[in-house]
């Protein structure tokens, strides 16, 4: 699949066309430096950065004028068993950070998901978690590089409450939902300092893994964060238990993630942490998307409503 320079890629539908064209032109310049032709490369999944793969390389470039030096430092410090492709180069052009890595054979796990059997899906989530655990075990060497906040984890309790306030205004939450929302956030920030702080991938999604009969690589560490293991666990559970349109799925893969989460979350504070992390995850997505999407039927809104229900939505088996 080749992307026409004149077409609008689905990942760019809600972006400013001028900014999108600039990012694409910068990516083309970077690709050319490494022997690539962007017109012959395929656009890969991912929202916060634009990525093209082909001609033996993968080019990731930031949509906004931000650098990638911290992520590069993390990537270079990762154990090789994580499977991340070799970094060929990195830099900043017109303020936009970029990374060029070697192309490795494999399919984006999210794109492959619909073609996998139930047994393959279960194996995939277990293998994805095994790759994440390699990162967790490398915390001693990563802790000085990985930040204590980022991605969907706000820097402070006040910042989290501000995000909750914005969601309340946008969604018109009921008084019961508001009360539960603030209670869950408070529970997370109260418990987080009491447990071991590990290097989390921070965005443990299917689209951030490569599949070639097995999970062969874990990608995109821009949201790596030092914190409770429940940060990665809540994403893993959501990926396997919730459909793209926000409906619950009963599956072997989902049951496997519930089993993994029950085993690895903190025995005392785990329910508060995984519930809080999941809520913070949806609050971040609501901040990103509600300006351009129909609120009523949008996935994060549906998920947040479930998480604020009496049983805790898709986390219900873990909150008993």
Automatic annotation (TrEMBL):
Protein source organism: Devosia limi DSM 17137
Lineage top rank: taxon: Bacteria
PANTHER family hit by this protein: AMINOGLYCOSIDE PHOSPHOTRANSFERASE-RELATED-RELATED
Record field: transmembrane: none
SUPFAM superfamilies named among the record's database cross-references: Protein kinase-like (PK-like)
Example of a GO MF term: kinase activity
Name of the featured protein: Phosphotransferase
Keywords: Kinase, Transferase
Domain Aminoglycoside phosphotransferase, chain residue ranges per copy: 45-237
């Amino acid at each position: 699949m080749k992307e026409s320079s004149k077409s609008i890629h689905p990942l760019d539908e809600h972006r400013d066309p001028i900014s999108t064209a600039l990012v694409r032109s910068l990516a083309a310049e970077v690709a050319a430096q490494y022997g690539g032709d962007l017109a012959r490369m395929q656009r890969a999944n991912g929202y916060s950065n634009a990525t093209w793969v082909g001609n033996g390389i993968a080019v990731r470039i930031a949509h906004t004028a931000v650098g990638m030096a911290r992520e590069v430092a993390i990537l270079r410090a990762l154990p090789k068993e994580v499977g991340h492709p070799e970094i060929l180069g990195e830099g900043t052009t017109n303020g936009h950070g970029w990374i060029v890595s070697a192309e490795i054979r494999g399919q984006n796990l999210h794109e492959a998901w619909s073609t996998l059997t139930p047994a393959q899906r279960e194996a995939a989530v277990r293998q994805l978690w095994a790759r994440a655990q390699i990162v967790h075990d490398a915390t001693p060497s990563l802790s000085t590089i990985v930040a204590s906040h980022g991605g969907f984890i706000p820097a402070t309790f006040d910042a989290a409450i501000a995000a909750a306030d914005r969601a309340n205004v946008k969604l018109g939450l009921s008084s019961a939902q508001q009360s539960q929302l603030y209670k869950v956030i408070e529970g997370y920030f109260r418990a987080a300092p009491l447990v071991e702080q590990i290097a989390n991938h921070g965005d443990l999604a299917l689209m951030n893994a490569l599949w070639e009969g097995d999970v062969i690589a874990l990608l995109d560490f821009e949201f790596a964060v030092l914190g409770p293991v429940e940060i990665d666990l809540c994403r893993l559970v959501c990926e396997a238990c919730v459909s793209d349109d926000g409906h619950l799925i009963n599956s072997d893969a989902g049951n496997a993630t519930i089993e993994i989460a029950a085993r690895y979350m903190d025995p005392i504070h785990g329910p508060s942490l995984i519930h809080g992390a999941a809520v913070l995850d949806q609050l971040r997505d609501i901040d990103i998307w509600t300006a351009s999407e129909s609120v009523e039927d949008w996935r994060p809104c549906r998920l947040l409503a479930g998480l604020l229900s009496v049983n805790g939505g898709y986390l219900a088996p873990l909150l008993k």
